[in-house]
């Protein structure tokens, strides 16, 4: 039936694609994608030829209109992003929203997501997690966001780019304190995949010990605020955060 299929693609290892995803990619009328070269490469690996519709953050509104017109004409359109699950720290949400508003059927096709992949092998308490994705690029905005996030009783999930990893980890240590654990999930499913878990106190030294550890794509997981921190620790935590917030006041 005509519908918009929101379809997850691999986050590194091309074999991490489901049979259902391949079937849908092959039989769709068109594939809306972030970067046509990237998606063409994935499709050609599986011998699939498709019409591609460029749908990136700069043209999402116009692309949405074209996609909705085609859905209304009875077509099946697959929406993908460059890697992982569309609309999660990726374009796609606007197209999905517009399609739903226009009364179209939207069907999710699950697969890889860097956040959930990292969480699954982190060994942290994952009953609750808070997905934040990318932090603000500017230091002040980043630190006040972190101060807020540091109060959560849930594992924090961040996405980070290699050129900011050292600064971000320094900021995490400053705001969250030395005791909580961090997990570096680097290059998941790829050749140089690495998962490393340590106390935040030891995180800057671990990164600095080998330049390769600062390369590639990262998910950072940080343990939530201890639920039963004794009062003393809690006060210290509050004082540190208050201090950080005051530093930012004009
Ligand atoms: N939609 C994707 C998903 O479902 O995970 C996320 C896309 S976002 C633009 C890209 C960021 O996701 C990277 O900067 C990195 O933080 C994270 N990421 C994607 N692939 C990864 C991988 N193989 N290993 C570690 N992190 C990854």
Automatic annotation (TrEMBL):
Report the top EC class in one word: transferase
Q: Where is the Tetrapyrrole methylase domain?
A: 4-203
Reaction(s) catalysed by this chain's protein: cytidine(1402) in 16S rRNA + S-adenosyl-L-methionine = 2'-O-methylcytidine(1402) in 16S rRNA + S-adenosyl-L-homocysteine + H(+)
- The name of this protein is Ribosomal RNA small subunit methyltransferase I
- What is this protein's function? Catalyzes the 2'-O-methylation of the ribose of cytidine 1402 (C1402) in 16S rRNA.
Query: So what EC number does this one have?
Result: 2.1.1.198
Q: Which GO terms describe its molecular function?
A: rRNA (cytosine-2'-O-)-methyltransferase activity
Specify first residue, last residue and whole-protein length for the fragment. 23 to 272 of 306
Family as reported in the entry's similarity comment: Belongs to the methyltransferase superfamily. RsmI family.
Any one cellular-component term (Gene Ontology): cytoplasm
Cite the entry's keywords alphabetically.
Cytoplasm, Methyltransferase, rRNA processing, S-adenosyl-L-methionine, Transferase
Q: Where does the record place it?
A: Cytoplasm
Q: Which organism is it from?
A: Noviherbaspirillum pedocola
